[in-house]
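Need fresh eyes. Consider my entry:
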Amino acid sequence: MKTLAVLMTALTLLTTSCKKDDDVAPDKTKILTSGSWQLSAMTVDPAIDWFGTPVTNVYSQLPACVKDDLAIFKTNGNVNYDEGASKCDPNDPQTTTGTWTFNTDQTVLSITQDGETESWNVSGLTGSSFKANYQVVQEGITYTFSVVFSKK
């Protein structure tokens, strides 16, 4: 009888201690660097003046030659921007580079290109979607841009 009680206790301990830990956050670096990302949505608050018209849906105003661009985040901290199938200016290089880093808890993505750094607050990052927002101050007005990238 004692052996049965010990066996049952051991079995109970094994089944409860082997549960998957659902609280472990996904490695955002691994997700970010696992492919190419294409802009699929961009909004701004408050509305910006777009050639005399107040606009909040910036993505709808972008030309096709911008919408097909790709961002490719590398594990070495570089980011490549590819012009995609169409270029807005045929004289532009097909690819440009920058650098990127996450803060310690992977909630802020800092991207540096041409000596300028933008910090993006990451609000979602899955295997298929990357959502963030960042602020730009122009003429004393703080604009909050929200972007969504889709995995390609």
